[in-house]
Amino acid sequence: MAWVVPQCLVRRDDAGALLRFPFNQDYIDDLKTILPRHARRWVPQEKAWRIFEPWVEGALELAEAYFEVAPVEQLQEVEWYSRDEIF
User: Fold this and answer.
1) For the chain, what is the HEC assignment?
2) How far is CA 7 from each of CA 23, 34, 38, 48, 51, rounded to the nearest angstrom?
3) Is residue 3 in some structural domain?
4) Is 47 within a domain?
5) Bridge pairing between strands 7-13 and 16-20
6) Who has the most CB within 10 Å: 16, 51, 53, 74?
7) How far apart are the first and last CA of the chain?
8) For residue 25, what are the domain limits?
C-alpha cells in the first residue's frame, strides 16, 4: 500500500504567495495562530490562502509539517481526494 502525501501548492508573486492545499483544520488553526490577520486572507476564487510578505517563510515552514510543499507557476485546478476515497 502506497502512502499519499497531500501537497501544498505554492505560487509566489511580488506581494507574497498563494497557498492551495486540501482542507486541514489543524493547519488552518495553526496558520491563524502564527500569522496576524493582516498577513493572511482566504481567496475563494483561487481556493487558496494569500500570505503577504514578510510572513510567507513562516507559513511555508508550518506547511512542511502537514504537507509536501510544491512550488508551481500557476495554481491549476487540482482534484483533491478525501481520506475515505484514498483508503
Assistant:
1) CCCCCCEEEEEEECCEEEEECCCCHHHHHHHHHHCCHHHEEEECCCCEEEEECCCHHHHHHHHCCCCEEEECCCCCCCCCCCHHHHC
2) 11, 20, 25, 13, 17
3) no
4) yes
5) antiparallel
6) 51
7) 9
8) 10-76
Grid coordinates representing 73 are 507557476
Domain count of the chain?
1
Chain centroid to Cα 46, Å, comes to 12
- Provide the whole-model pTM: 0.79
pLDDT tens, residue by residue, 2-50: 566 688 999 999 999 999 999 999 999 999 999 999 999 999 998 999 9
